[in-house]
């Protein structure tokens, strides 16, 4: 498939390794990967603060970067940004061209589970990982059934990862409680955010896993800052890095 | 412990609460235990999600036909010998209550839990008119004796430790000094409140559901305090928001199945009492209160907050509430539902930001109130009204322009990455603000992803 | 304009589109309803006596009376040592009340009691301990079924009672016996 990458500003600027792993793993799976030019922020920092006017310019710029791009899917290795892009594109542009872009948007896990499943991994991943099921991915993209919801359960993240030879998947206590990042919440509500992050980092460390693995770079950035401040014996990895290492 | 409803922001109050970390852990754990009990109770019913959907739909149906159901309710109440009063706001509600009590020369009123009367500030109003008001729910009585507001809508004294309750009861009720056994303290409160029930002139309760086609009110308690009150003196009053009415008994059955399960994990409250008229020779009054609810119904998104049945499930699951405490919100009702229904009353405008938009509350809610959507909407309303907190009105336009410009974003982030890489942490800390106060700064990469891609995959 | 009129006026312009009333059709769990009831009654801290019958209950009541306790009964065939008093307040020293329940609910251990069987409405709350008597064929699966069968005529009071009075308001520690009855024993007859 021909895949256009949506690389959110945070990944582009601060976590390029997540983008690189995404490119490499998609290419190993036989896909053609392109990076449409002119990508900016999805507008989430502004719209999540209620500032829609301020978000409009950047959101439309991002949308325009994908309009008319020939591809089978637009894939993003960041669930929260993906959700915000979908919502904000729709908010500011109701044209068929905008809808065509929205219809092609997939978060990486979602893409690998729903659209182009991985037939086999050819390398083992000899570690125990503690899965970070970030909020927007599970509650707005259905990547996993949230713990509040009853009835049949799905977990696309685990479903994708558990096929990797030798991998051991565990979960922290209160496994899908928010890590406390919340965008500007981390700054506005520093003390409460930090307590949430500390609790989450400790819960991951208590599993004895070598890595806390997630699909949302912003949560991982927050967790990483907490883990290093608390000097906990665990590191963060993005799901793309784990998958790439096993291909 | 700070109990004041001052005008400090939620962030400031949360920061103060977080200073005692062991207390935060204790508070968070106690409430999470309720969430776990809720999960077990909900999970035991294969039809749980169906009940949530039914609850949502029947409440939304009622809210969109509210005038019709309120009139039907009033007519049926009157046919059952119940007197119905209408109050446009809290002030009028308090006046109506006082008038009813004054006509009967009531000196002592026993009350069961009602968040509506908290919202209307009824107790101080009646006390200023010489009427003694006794809150009879154990948790409510504890905080009344401690002169504090509730910190949770279902377990109002959840913020107090048993030793603190023991000291309070020793001081106010004469229990043994140092005694803190919950059974001993509860029995002491039972004996104390029995006397109050037996000597009360009137009783007042909140209303969990009002049945339109029967003219009946449903009151749910675990302790039996509402029924001990309403069934002893010959005068009973029930205050309800306009949002409490449901069409019929079948609707009430749906909500009774989810209310207690979602609140505490019990299959149902111990007592679910249906009052369809006063006791023999008694008088029964129902006061229907608006107090801003009709205004919320004029906003499509805010309107859904009125589906709430006040189970408190959203507070228990909220990671922010559990770590900031009930007094960090500038409204009588804390937590996600407090933000949803109280943000317009917050002078600091900070309540809508006391939330990471994680969405757990929305998924917990037994009537599917879209709490995260409503909280997000409140942020937009605050922005539109020029009432942004935390300096956002100054920096958000700058962020908007900055983010929309690739050049600016690339240049400045390149500088930032270099700074993060080459400067020692100690030098960066003062500049990193709220992030670096609690967390290590990110380890900066050498270049952006885009630069890597162009170099390695460029055409 | 009166407050009633102004509220009703304001309600004429609700921002949400009118929604239809849903059809409430929830499948009941019909296997072993009495067993379910027993389990759930225990969950809410009540005790079920499946086989003792009215005879067993009368024997228990006689035993209590012999201990000098005050027992009031409104169940046909069960004799206590107290009559229904003129005022509700005179019930304050009742140790045990024996009351008929109209139906029991398997899913949550609740029993419906109507005020016609109470003497005074406060009886099941003010007594120190409560006995409820329910006919074995009056156990229904869930609240949807129960609500269609309860008696609640105009002017009446009725209550679902699920276990003894309880509270967890002090540090979430469950204490049985807050304001209402401190124990509940249910006799199936």
Fill in the keyword field for this structure:
heterotrimer, B: alpha/beta, six-stranded parallel sheet, four-stranded mixed sheet, 10 strands, 10% strand, C: alpha/beta, Rossmann fold, five-stranded parallel sheet, FTHF_cligase-like_sf (chain C), Lactate dehydrogenase (chain C)
Instruction: Report the count of strand segments of chain A.
Output: 8
Helices of chain B, by number, come to: 23
* CATH classification class of the largest domain in chain B: Alpha Beta
Report how far the terminal alpha carbons of chain A are from each other: 18 Å
What composes the largest sheet of chain A? 4 strands, parallel
- In total, the number of domains of chain B comes to 3
Largest sheet of chain B: 6 strands, parallel
**Spatial ordering of strands, largest sheet of chain A:** 2-1-3-4
Oligomer: heterotrimer
Question: Structural class, from secondary structure content of chain A?
Answer: alpha/beta
- What is the approximate shape of chain A? globular
Superfamily (CATH H level) name of the largest domain in chain B: NagB/RpiA/CoA transferase-like
Task: Report the count of strand segments of chain B.
Answer: 10
Low-confidence stretches of chain B: none
| Helix-residue proportion of chain A | 40-55%
Q: Indicate the proportion of strand residues of chain A.
A: 5-15%
Question: What form of chain B results from the Cα inertia axes?
Answer: globular
- Biggest interface found: B-C, 98 and 75 residues
Average pLDDT reading of chain B:
94
InterPro entries (chain B): 4Fe4S_Fe-S-bd, 4Fe4S_Fe_S_CS, FTHF_cligase-like_sf, Helical_ferredxn, LUD_dom, LutB/LldF, NagB/RpiA_transferase-like
Keywords (chain B): 4Fe-4S, Electron transport, Iron, Iron-sulfur, Metal-binding, Repeat, Transport
Domain 4Fe-4S ferredoxin-type (chain B): 299-320
Protein name (chain B): 4Fe-4S ferredoxin
